[in-house]
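pipeline: protein-struct stage 2 | run 1193 | Nucleoid-associated protein NP439_00185
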Amino acid sequence: MKGNMNNMMKQMQKMQKKMMKAQDELHEMSFEASAGGGMVTVRANGKKEITDVEVKEEVVDPDDIEMLQDLILAATNDVLTQIDEKTNATMGQFTKGMNMPGMF
């Protein structure tokens, strides 16, 4: 019984190392989303930190600030969704078949 427990602990440690490596790789990834046909582009890393916002000059209209705000929001929400989907796909492989509330 003790040998079985040690083996299980080794397997858990191995899985934990793989999970940490996968998480580190996710954090290093770059994600990009655009809105308005490329008029607004938002870039972020896997930590969900916005690293760049690019706005094309021709979309800046002082009489229509709401449109620019909507484009920025759309691109930002899209890039964050991409990060969530990639994180769930990557980290979900470690919890398949496990009933672990609160895990991916």
